[in-house]
Amino acid sequence: MTDRELEPPGDGELRASPLELFFDLVFVFVVTQLTASLAHHLTPGGLARVLVMLAVIWWMYDAYIWVANALPPRTHGRRGLMLLGMGCFLVIALSVPRAFEGGGETFGWAYLLVIAVHTGMFATAGVRPEAVARMGALNLFGAGLVIAGGYLRGGPELLLWTAAFGLQLAIPYLVDLPRFQLRADHFVERHGLVVIVAFGESVIAIGVGIGDAELTGALIAAAMLALAVCVGLWWAYFGSDDEERAVHAMARLDDARRNLAAIKVYNLGHYALLLGVILFATGAKTATAHPTSPIHLPEALALAGGTALFLCANSAVRRTLDLGPGRLRLLAAALVLAAAPLGTAFSPLAQLAATAAVLALAFRAEHRRATGAAAAGASAREDVRGLPGAVAAVAGVGEVAGVVEAGEPG
């Protein structure tokens, strides 16, 4: 069978392919490595390093979602390039723990190859060659900053990697890609799958925190409560059919506005979501390791801050795509942060319990409000349909008369 025979048939529904799901498993390892790095260096400096590493990695990982949206990996050539990119991301993940301690150059060269493969694939996606050349040149310049930082190490490395991240933020405004036809169904689905695999890291962190300790009642309770919080974050993202509504919201936009919305919601917005998951997983790892003893402030803040950041980013995403109100989620984020002292004064078990309770109450109230609004709307429609014919006719005549009167000269 030739590559041409494997081409997708027309413009039907585009779903994530098994190879893309396989690709996501490498990203799970990236998240695992970043979580482990933050857990070992839970300081402002350690957090800054994770912020920058996640930023530069996620930018190019998301770029592969864009290129798979335009070029589904259904030919042998595309699959080979995707597998090459996957291998490079694996090298990047392996170098994360030592990226600021002597392994930054390995990170940088693997990152350069990731960009080269992506640019080569994107050049065949039907985008204007000038735009591809400009985007590729800017990405390669960013890779140069990452490589140079890897050799310099320390403060200069952090500065150059931050500059690379800043350049990435500017690329969508420096490269004109209005004619790129983004497929909303595939794009939304792929990002949902990435969030799912990130949640998997939280579950792994729970298990790593427990290790080979004896399964006491407190340990089991902490694990279940940490899982309950993770389920709450899952509900925030998936529980209100937001994925399906996001597809419709994106599909209604023209190409240029859809591409900008994709940058805001699925690149920047999901960067914040993933950072929230990493912070929560870091806190959960400590919480399950010592469920009944007070924990230090950084661990308590990671546990609370990760949950709160996820809720805030999720609210921003919903507001941008007009998926529903987010005030209750913002209130829940504030209450979760307020519960952080429970971990330092009493135990992470108490903090987890309070966090899970806040999420449950917030989503229950949100559901009841949405149900009430839907019932009120249905009742109003029934009332209109139930008007007697004569009353409806009189109302219609009144409307016509009002229009005619308004249209008469004074």
UniProtKB/TrEMBL annotation:
* Transmembrane portions of the chain: 21-40, 46-68, 80-100, 106-125, 132-152, 158-175, 187-210, 216-238, 259-280, 300-318, 330-363
Q: Does the keyword Membrane apply?
A: yes
Q: Does the keyword Membrane apply?
A: yes
Q: What keywords are assigned to this protein? A: Membrane, Transmembrane, Transmembrane helix
Entry's InterPro entries?
A: Low_temperature_requirement_A
Superkingdom is Bacteria
Signal sequence segment: none
Q: What is this protein called?
A: Low temperature requirement protein A
The taxonomic lineage of its organism, from the top, reads: Bacteria, Bacillati, Actinomycetota, Actinomycetes, Kitasatosporales
